[in-house]
Write a structure and sequence with these properties.
Blueprint (H helix, E strand, L loop, with lengths): L14 E3 L1 H6 L6 E3 L12 E3 L2 H14 L5 E3 L14 E3 L7 H19 L2 H11 L20 H10 L1 H6 L17 H13 L3 E5 L2 H13 L5 E5 L4 H10 L3 E5 L19 H9 L3 H4 L5 E7 L6 E3 L1 H8 L3 E7 L28 E7 L11 E6 L5 H18 L6 H39 L4 E2 L4 E2 L2 E2 L5 H4 L25 E3 L3 E5 L16 H10 L6 E2 L3 E5 L6 H20 L3 H4 L1 H6 L8 H15 L1 H7 L13 H9 L3 E5 L13 E2 L15 H16 L7 E2 L2 E4 L5 E8 L4
Parallel strand pairs: 1-2, 1-3, 3-4, 4-5, 7-8, 7-9, 9-11, 11-12
Antiparallel strand pairs: 6-13, 10-17, 12-13, 14-18, 15-16, 18-20, 19-20, 21-25, 22-23, 24-25
GO molecular function: carboxy-lyase activity; pyridoxal phosphate binding
Organism: Salinarimonas ramus
InterPro entries: Orn/lys/arg_de-COase, Orn/Lys/Arg_deCO2ase_major_dom, Prn/Lys/Arg_de-COase_C, Prn/Lys/Arg_de-COase_C_sf, PyrdxlP-dep_Trfase, PyrdxlP-dep_Trfase_major, PyrdxlP-dep_Trfase_small
């Protein structure tokens, strides 16, 4: 980096003042009226001129960030009882506004420096040295790029600060990121305290890599793993393909909306689990702890989240460790409603397994894309196991982690921890309340779509209850046994619940009451409309949409979303031309879409029904229909990389062994894994997808491991890789 490549500080944080203080201080900082402002985590000081205002300022500081300076412009013999070390009294007699401003500026700057998290603070300190470097990265704080207009334009788009913070990792001043020393270790230790782990590891290549690190640290060939069939492909790859462990699969549920549910409650029974293992290895099934690891998706993409207390109390004693892949959550420990969903907050008594949690910090928390973290709780297992776990994880991190870390990614993990440590519960309480309010708005304004929540709680409609009550009462997000509104089989009302931070909207009544039948809106069409309106959902499936709610979600944007849903329903009722409602879609294939919106919805819905997609989707993950494993995932992968495979049309794949797994991405859940046989519902499902791809290509899902080709007649055909029969 050249000496002039120093990051600028564009934002000046405001000061909150009462009316009298605003007249007494001169500062370049923005002034927020204390009388009209709420608790604001961006305020760097409170300045007040009266004892009445002081009480309000102290209350606001406790809600936002306890150490923010609170300055009283009065002579004061002793601080008020409720004040802490951040209280300062200044006698303004004889002082000019500029002098008062300088005192407040010093306090505010000190507060801003002290509240920076460990790694970011060290990184900014390093950059401030303005070293001349002859080490990588080669862009040297963006100067390389400035040699050409394209490079200069790229710097303008991305911002010079990002390049300034991409500093040499050859310099030991910032600590060893691979050895977990210095500021990186301090940042991870701070995150562990915030989230409730014995130790935390930051990972820069997503939870895909984090899960493989866990597998490498804990597993050896032949170890048995109790395996949630909803697990992400990274767990299949890390646990089965790389580590060579042996899975005992647990089935999972899907409902008629296409929503991904969790493992049925009956599967968390010791007898059931031992019976599943006994069919594979009778001797191992009799062991006290037959499983080295259990691996579960703590929260599904579609908002089912587990009560981890129930899981650990029912089957935890059968496992040495339990991995909860929390890629789609991570905030549960900051929401009282989800307290029992947090593996990092539950008490681990003697005999409990070790607990590992992986989190995608970029999904609904504040990290840059690809940021992830691993939390480990194993101190209760004893000093020897704890120390061994540290050594194994350190080695696995060196094996999978990059030796060329992008420091802004690491800093964003550090900042995420500081945000959650300072105001995590406050931020997520607002998210939960905002989510409740928008669900009420959808229920009020929409006729053909509804939020995925119970119709009634007690004897009143869900939306008729007070928001504050809904935000703290688990009944409003529970899956009542056998309830028609959710349609999931096998839930007992205790193990699974609904994540309030996933806004799920269902677009059909798939089990209509007698005499009441509403039009069914394929969610892919609704999603296409929303995107043309500049509103991007996280996901759409058969008859469901998913919208992620975070502390960044603004109520006004959610209101725009509701307005768009209402407009779509109006267009549908009028059967307005697709050319009017979805002009981008129509322009891509005018002949195919020369129809009304309601006509298009009926056509796609009929295709779903004729092919039985909802039933096939559910059956693929039921225990009795899970694809048969002919050889292990690892063996199949090795044969694949050695070329012992062939590509065949999906119609000819029946009875053949998959050389490559097939999965929708996202969310990355294998429908069939390598080594399993193409047969039954999974084979019929992909034949149905082939028809959908040919007749409605704009609404066909995207799959890894399934390859699209055009046949001689121009029709879309799916091909898959299967092992050679003589292999």
């Amino acid at each position: 980096m050249r000496p002039d490549a120093t990051p600028s500080h564009a934002r000046i944080e405001p000061i909150a003042v009462d009316r009298a203080a605003a007249q007494a201080i001169a500062t370049v900082r923005p002034l927020l009226p204390l009388e009209t402002s709420s608790a604001d985590a961006t305020v760097s000081a409170y300045v007040v001129a009266s004892l009445a205002s002081l009480e309000a300022a102290l209350a606001r500081s406790r809600l936002s960030q306890p150490n923010v300076p609170v300055v009283l412009l009065q002579a004061c013999d002793r601080p008020p009882d409720e004040a802490d070390g951040s209280f300062v009294a200044i006698d303004p007699a004889g002082m000019r506004p500029e002098q008062i401003g300088r005192v407040v500026e010093t306090l505010a700057r000190r507060f801003e420096d002290e509240k920076l998290p460990p790694f970011l603070s060290a990184l900014l300190g390093y950059v401030a040295r303005r070293n001349t470097t002859f080490a990588c990265p080669g862009h040297q704080g963006s100067h390389f790029l400035e040699r050409h207009p394209v490079g200069r334009r790229f710097v303008e788009i991305v911002g010079r600060n990002l390049f300034a913070l991409d500093v040499p990792h050859a310099d030991p001043m910032l600590g060893d990121m691979t050895g977990r020393e210095g500021p990186p270790a301090e940042a991870e230790a701070h995150a562990a305290r915030v989230f409730g782990a014995d130790r935390t590891y930051f990972v820069l290549n997503g939870t895909l890599t984090a899960n493989k690190i866990v597998a490498t640290a804990l597993l050896a060939p032949g170890d048995y793993v109790l395996f949630d069939r909803n697990n992400h492909k990274s767990i299949y790859n890390g646990v089965l393909a790389m580590a060579g462990a042996r899975p005992v699969y647990l089935e999972t549920t899907r409902n008629s909306f296409g929503l991904i549910g969790g493992v049925p409650s009956r599967c968390f029974d010791e007898s059931y689990v031992r019976d599943r293992l006994r069919a594979i290895d009778p001797e191992r099934a009799a062991a006290e702890r037959p499983f080295r690891l259990a691996a579960f998706q703590l929260g599904t993409w579609d908002g089912t989240i587990y009560d981890v207390h129930e899981i650990v109390s029912r089957i935890g004693h059968l496992c040495e460790y339990v991995l909860f892949d929390s890629a789609w959550v991570g905030y549960e420990q900051f929401i009282p409603l989800l307290e029992r969903a947090s593996p990092l907050r539950m008490e681990l008594r003697p005999g409990a397994p070790g607990v590992v949690v992986t989190q995608s910090v970029h999904k609904q928390m504040s990290g840059f894309s690809q940021t992830s973290q691993i939390h480990v709780r194993d101190r209760h297992l004893g000093e020897r196991t704890h120390k061994h776990g540290e050594a194994a994880f350190d080695a696995a991190l060196k094996m999978h982690g990059t030796t060329s870390p992008f420091y802004p990614l690491f800093a964003s993990l550090d900042v995420n921890a500081r945000l959650h440590g300072a105001i995590g519960p406050q931020m997520w309480a607002e998210v939960v309340e905002t989510g409740i309010e928008i669900r009420k708005r959808i229920l009020q304004r929409c006729r053909l779509m509804r939020p995925f929540v119970p119709s009634t709680v007690g004897e009143r409609a869900w939306q008729d209850h007070d928001t504050a009550q809904i935000a703290t009462d688990r009944r409003f997000f529970e899956f009542e046994v056998g309830a028609r509104w959710h349609g999931f089989d096998g839930y007992d009302g205790a193990v699974q619940r609904l994540d309030p931070c996933k806004l799920l909207v269902v677009t059909a009544d798939t089990h209509p009451s007698a005499g009441v039948e509403r039009p069914r809106l394929p969610a892919g069409i609704v999603a296409a409309y929303l995107r043309e309106q500049g509103l991007v959902p996280e996901k759409s499936d058969l008859y469901s949409l998913v919208f992620l709610l975070t502390p960044a979600t603004r109520p006004e944007d959610l209101e725009r979303l509701v307005d768009a849903l209402v407009r779509f329903e109006a267009h549908h009722c009028a059967n307005d031309p697709v050319s009017l409602v979805l002009p981008g879609l129509h322009a891509g294939d005018p002949a195919r879409y020369a129809c009304g919106l309601a006509d298009l919805c009926r056509r796609i819905d009929a295709l779903y029904v004729e092919e039985g997609l909802a039933g096939l989707l559910a059956d693929m993950f039921r225990a009795r229909f899970l694809p048969r494993a002919r050889i292990s995932v690892q063996d199949a992968h090795y044969r694949f990389v050695r070329g012992a495979y062939e590509r065949v049309p999906i119609a000819e794949a029946a009875g053949r062994i998959a050389a490559e797994g097939a999965l929708p991405y996202p969310p990355g859940i294998f429908c069939i894994a390598p080594g399993e046989v193409w047969d039954g519902p999974v084979h019929r499902f992909f034949e149905a997808i082939e028809r959908l791809l040919d007749e409605a290509p704009d609404f066909a899902p995207f799959y890894h491991g399934v390859h699209t080709v055009d046949d001689a007649s121009g029709r879309k055909r799916l091909h898959v890789h299967v092992l050679s029969e003589d292999a």
